[in-house]
Design goal:
- The protein has 333 residues and is of the alpha/beta class.
- It has two domains: 236 residues, 4-Layer Sandwich (Metallo-beta-lactamase, Chain A), CATH 3.60.15; 72 residues, Oxidized Rhodanese, domain 1.
- It has ten helices and 17 strands.
- The strands form four sheets. Strands 1-2-3-4-5-6 form a six-stranded mixed β-sheet.
- Helix 3 crosses helix 5.
- The radius of gyration is 21 Å and the shape is globular.
- The mean pLDDT is 96.
Length: 333
Amino acid sequence: MSNLEVISIETPNLGDRSYVIGAGATAIVIDPQRDIDRVLDVLDAQGWSPSHILETHFHNDYVSGGLQLARQTDASYVVPDGMDISFDAQQVKDNDEIESDVGRIRVLHTPGHTPNHVSFAIHRDGHDIALFTGGSLLFGSVGRPDLLGPAFTEPLARSQWKSMQRLPQIVSNDVPVYPTHGFGSFCSATATVGTHSTLLEQMRANPVFHTDEETYIRELIAGLDAFPKYYVYMGPANQLGAGPIDLSLPRLATADDLVHHLQQGDWVVDLRHRRVFAADHIHASFSFDVHGNAVTYLGWLLDWGTPLVLLGADLTEIAIMQRELVRIGIDRP
C-alpha cells in the first residue's frame, strides 16, 4: 500500500522517541529532541530532504530541537494552535490538512496530556497508514494529565478519555501507532506495555477504550505519581524557542577551580560509576552515574540555574552528559 518508511530515534533516558518519516526524496520529522545532529544523520543517510518539522505538543519533559531543525533545513515548522510563541511557525488545529510528498498529514486535536495537543495521521491512497500520537495514546496507557498543575488535572483527564473515544471514529483502525512518550518517560500516566502496536490492538488492550469515563478518571488520577521537578521549565522554553546547541567540550578545571566552585555553592557532579565514587570522591560532590539515568534525576534534584561542574573518568563521560543536559535545557556546564 505504501513505500513509507518510519525511522524512530530513541532517547532512552527520557523515555521518548522522535520520528523521521520518508518517502521518495522527502521526509517529515515529528517531535525531535534538541540534539538535532541525530536527525540530520538519518536524513543524510537516507537521502531525504525534510519538508515539515512537526510538534504534537509543547513538551514538558524536554527542550525541542524542532525550531532549529526547521531553520537549518528550510522546512516548515508546524506546532499546535492556541499557544503564545515567540517565533514564526505554522500553527495547526483540528481537521487541518498539510500536503507533503510523504502523504497528506491530517491534524487531529487530541487534548488530554496538554490542552492543545494534536496527533498526526499520514493519509495515502485513501487510507491512514501511520498515526503519530505524541503524548496522547501510548502503548497500554495515555499521557499524564497533571503536568500543568492541579487545576488542570481532572479537566485534562476527561479530555484525554474523550480524545481516545474519538480516535477510532476518525482514523483507520488498522493504522500503526507511533507515540513519542511511553518508553520509560514520566510523561506516561501509568506503565506502558510493548514497543509496537496498532490502533486496533490498543482498542482491545488499552484500558482507556473499555473503561467508563468516571471510573477511568478516578483510577487514572489516583494512580499518578511524582514527576521530575525540571518539567516546569520545559514548556516555557519550548514556547520561547530553543537556540542552537554547542557540544564542544568545556574548559578543563584545575584543582583550584574545583575548590572555588564548591565554595560558591556550585554543584560538582561526579559522573563516574557509583562504585568508583563510593571508593573515593571529592568531598561535597554529587554522584550521578552517567552509565545510568543521570540526567532525569539530576534535573529532578537540582536547584534550577545552579552552575554545574562535570567530573568524569574520561572525556567520553563528559560528552555523554553534555548531550543529555542540553535535552533538558542545561547548556555549557
